[in-house]
Amino acid sequence: MDPCPFVRITVGNLALKIPVASKPTRSVVHPSSSPCFCKIELKNFHMQTAVVPYIPPENQLAENQLQTPAATFYLSKADIDKLAAKSIFSSKPCLKIAIYTGRGGSTCGVNSGRLLGKVSLPLDLAGTESRACVFHNGWISVGKEANKGSSAQLHLNVKAEPDPRFVFQFDGEPECSPQVFQIRGNIQQPVFTCKFSFRNTGDRNQRSRSLQSEPSSSRSWLSSFGSVRERSGKERKGWSITVHDLSGSPVAAASMVTPFVASPGSDRVSRSNPGSWLILRPGDGTWKPWGRLEAWRERGSSDGLGYRFELIPNMSAAAIVLAESTLSSGKGGKFVIDLGGNNSSGANGRITPASATSPACSPRSSGDFGYGLWPYSVYRGFVMSAGVEGEGKCSKPCVEVSVQHVNCTEDAAAFVALAAAIDLSMDACRLFSQRLRKELCNPQDFLG
User: Fold this and answer.
1) In the chain, what are the domain boundaries?
2) Exposed, middle or buried, 120 (CB in 10 Å: 0-12/13-18/19+)?
3) Minimal CA–CA distance to 266: which of 225, 296, 307?
4) Closest CA to 343 of 34, 61, 88, 51
5) Residues 254, 418: contact at Cβ < 8 Å?
6) pTM, entire model
7) Euclidean distance between CA atoms 282 and 414, whole angstroms
8) What is the pLDDT of residues 86-100, one digit of tens each?
9) Correct CATH for 6-162 of 3.40.50.300, 3.30.160.40, 2.60.40.150, 3.40.50.720
């Protein structure tokens, strides 16, 4: 499988110094007594906000301390071409950073922070699809006094690195048992087929023709992930989707192990009682758990699909949360697992566990952002993303998976199964007053 070129632009190792002469006054908020933050912008991408640590002028940089990346932008080949396109109005693309003193946020529509200064850094993206490039690493003057040598100084590291991805596209909605194509440029090549079915809810051992022999021990751990709340009434249960390679062999599966049930006196699946999927991979003649996805319907103004995805290392009960956020039930968004950045570059639903990197309060001159060793996990940086359409819209998920996390067909298939599960969860969490399409309704529920 050939990957698609992507580039990751990372902004990190932020710190701020203010000249000694700049004393607190009545009209100015000084960073020594108030936090600082910055807004980071790249054309055509969502603006990101990050805290900027303040370093007193008399202090030296602590070289042994590390800092979490402040912002990360992911660029496809099309994004790079668009940014690099010359016009009479622009030359090279620029990264723009506005530094503020005071707390972030706004009151009555007015920003509460005071603008300290701005920095504009040109980016030459030519060749970054195949080689790393550091655009800046060190101090840079900001503010009105930048040319007089008495301005505030911002430390930052801006670099671009190749981040190739495999891109997969469903050619239909997951419940319609579609094919899945790998996309590279204008080339589409079939790689998987999906089979949606209704698992017998009395038998949690979803099987496939090549996985018929299943030890009794596997029944115990699989049932332990599910719930015993199999009751009639407002519930959606028994959905499963199996991913096959082109030879017809099953290479991954997503099985609904806890029904999606309306809370008492309600018409929705609550956060306190979510439905769940088990993402499975074949091994030793049986299905083995790889991850668990929980989903529910959020209340309040968001009224979206809440989710939590956990990695299950070595069949251990100590699951590790990789992603937890909310997608708009009306507009949809992106389910993203990213363990290396601060904010998304415009995608909905991205979240980064704090333990993914090592935090600190001052930069390193080496420009290394210091990605820490994340316990029990080989996943670092961008892992995967999957598009999810809103309720009532035709959804053909597009799945992007980092090359560094795909070593075999089963690796890619597991992410495809996860994408199908999050997409189906949008339907599973619909209000029970709304009807589902016929493909999602088990005929057995209407018998007897």
Assistant:
1) 6-162, 165-339+374-446
2) exposed
3) 296
4) 51
5) yes
6) 0.81
7) 10
8) 654 556 789 999 999
9) 2.60.40.150
